[in-house]
Amino acid sequence: MDMKFFSNFSKYEKIILLIISSIYFNNLFIDIMNVDAAQYASISQEMLRNHSYLQVMDLQYDYLDKPPLLFWISSLSMGVFGVCNFAYKLGAFLMLLLSLYSIFRFTSIYYSQQIAKNSVLIFGTCQAFFLMTNDVRTDGILTSSVITGIWLLTEYLLNNKIKYLVFAAIFTAFAMMAKGPIGIIAVLMPVGLQLLYKKDWKKVFSFSWFFYLLIVGLLLIPMSYGLYTQFDLHPEKITNGVPHQSGLYFYYWLQSFGRITGENVWDNGLPWHFFIGTISWDFFPWILFLYFGLFFQIKKLINKTLPEISTLSGFLLLFVLLSMSRYKLPHYVFVTLPFASIICATYLDTLNSKQWKNWNKVYFVFGFIVLALLVIYQTLFFTDLNFILIVLVLLQLLLLIGMKKLGLHGASKMVGYVIVLNLFLSFVFYPKLLTFQADSMAGRWFYENKSNEMVYLVDEKSHAFNFYSKNPENKSVALIDIGSIKNTCWLYTKEANLKQIASKFELIEKKKFENYPITRLKLPFLLQQKREQTLEYYYLVKIKPRT
Asked: What pLDDT does 334 receive?
């Protein structure tokens, strides 16, 4: 990354970047969440253990779902730093940092430096960005690859330097190896529409596109070869319950486009407007600016005064395309947020002092809500005295009282409250919440205390347990079959199974772990007085056959 990038920011803006970077960095050490991230971490560990980089395995079974780029990056990192939270998350984190630089460079092509800086601050402080550095899935790599690919293609089309085209092709391939064919659509659609918008027919029909696609195709060969040899050459395999599953067909069509056509059986029944609701949190605190920004961008488009259409089309058309999918999850929309950030930044640049005063009143309410959340957490949710939380409460009060005196402008004026919120989430809330993920806590305890002994998981498999016990080959056993165990070993099991286990074995040692599905939080769990009723318990028990 060009170090001159930082010289563009003011002293206050650099302080903001430093603080949010500390939050990102701390997120690298927070435990990995069930279900998706834990599965991807476990697959990466298994890939490192088996050195099977083209044929992806999950708990020793064929895996056919997400493309392998995240697994490749994470397993490489684990080979250097060991199997740990930091190693799993590092690659995606570095890609996300690159996305901030790419947004700045892309926005600077069409807009002022202030708009470019605000775009960086907005994207870097929206809730989705903080979440992508913590709950690492494929979306962070996809998002970064897409905005970087668009910037590089735009640079090539303006400056005709071949290095930009080559690197644009590389990041387009990365986008495809992160999430599938949606990657190349997300890159080419905004750039192509920009050329049509400017009626630049010479570049639309340029031979350089064949060179670009050739590089993308060459980079996809290793992944495609792995899919072919793992699945297409073995029609006898039953994968995900489907016989004769073609890996190439699944990846290049069924997994992405099949969700729109209905060929893919995955359908969680969510309505077309699902993302309109989820983006309110994903893009907090900038969501209201986005609505106004979209209105002004569309108005400029109608009046033919819009300087470029890549941003507006990148957001709206991708948003519509994702909304057409029959299977939706909140993080799918993250790839649209770099465009949303630019839309917000261009709107902020139009505000006069009177309008800023009105927006300051709105964001004062946001700040008060954050303060109320911190107080409620300490008094009703987790009442153990937390000094970090006390400091954050005092800091938030200071911001609410003294924000006018700081002399900040643009996006930097609004980020104080969201910084306090995410300092709270990263240093207080998530570390506490993840102590209720029993699989992680049990796996870590077993590795630290009993790593040389044998353990069986009763009636289940657990990616988190395998990752934290640093053993991707932990075995499972059905409860009805535990009588076949003839040696002293450990069992990891639900509380409901303890009575039956105790009837067949002598229990030598027992360790208890609290569990709650932390990705589906509900108020009874959060409330200190009612939490006990919502918990289930898992145990590590050491058994010895009765003589």
From this structure: 93
DSSP symbols for 465-499: HHHHTT-TT-EEE-GGGGGG--S-EEEEEEGGGHH
Name 259's bridge partners.
none
**Among 389, 447, 445, which residue's Cα sits nearest to residue 421?**
389
Q: What is the pLDDT of residues 429-471, one digit of tens each?
A: 999 999 999 999 999 999 999 888 889 999 888 999 999 998 8
Q: With beta carbons less than 8 A apart as the criterion, state whether 219 and 166 touch.
A: no
For residue 260, the one-letter residue type is: I
Whether 285 and 414 have beta carbons less than 8 Å apart is answered as yes
Angle at 75 between CA 73 and CA 77, to 5 degrees: 70
pLDDT for the residue 73: 96
Please give the angle made by the CA atoms of 3, 337 and 260, to the nearest 5 degrees: 135
In three-state secondary structure terms, 519 is coil
Cis peptide before 285 (omega within 30 of 0): yes
Say which amino acid occupies 381: F
User: With left for phi above 0 and alpha for psi between -120 and 50, is residue 452 left, alpha or beta?
Assistant: alpha
Report d(CA 186, CA 320) in Å as an integer.
Answer: 12
Predicted pLDDT at 374:
94
Report d(CA 367, CA 269) in Å as an integer: 35
Q: DSSP character for 413?
A: G
C-alpha span between 354 and 455 (Å, rounded):
66
Instruction: For strands 536-545 and 505-515, give the pairing.
Output: antiparallel
- DSSP letters for 378-396: IIII--S--HHHHHHHHHH
**Nearest 5°: phi and psi at 409?**
-135, 160
> How far is the C-alpha of 90 from the C-alpha of 92, rounded, in Å?
6
3-class DSSP assignment, residue 356: helix
Q: How far apart are CA 215 and CA 34, in angstroms?
A: 36
Q: Identify any residues that bridge with 494 across adjacent strands, giving them in sequence order.
A: 538
Counting as low any pLDDT under 70, the low residues of the chain are 1-3, 258-269, 403-413
Helices (H), 220-286: 221-227, 247-249, 258-261, 274-282
Number of H helices, E strands in the chain: 28, 9
Residues with Cβ < 8 Å from 474, sequence gap 6 or more? 455, 456, 457, 462, 465, 466
Confidence (pLDDT) at 486? 86
pTM for this entry: 0.92
Each residue's pLDDT tens digit, 278-305: 899 899 889 999 999 999 999 999 988 8
Please answer whether residues 168 and 149 qualify as being in contact, where contact means their C-beta atoms are separated by less than 8 angstroms. Answer: yes
Residue type, 265: V
Residue with tokens 């993920």: 437
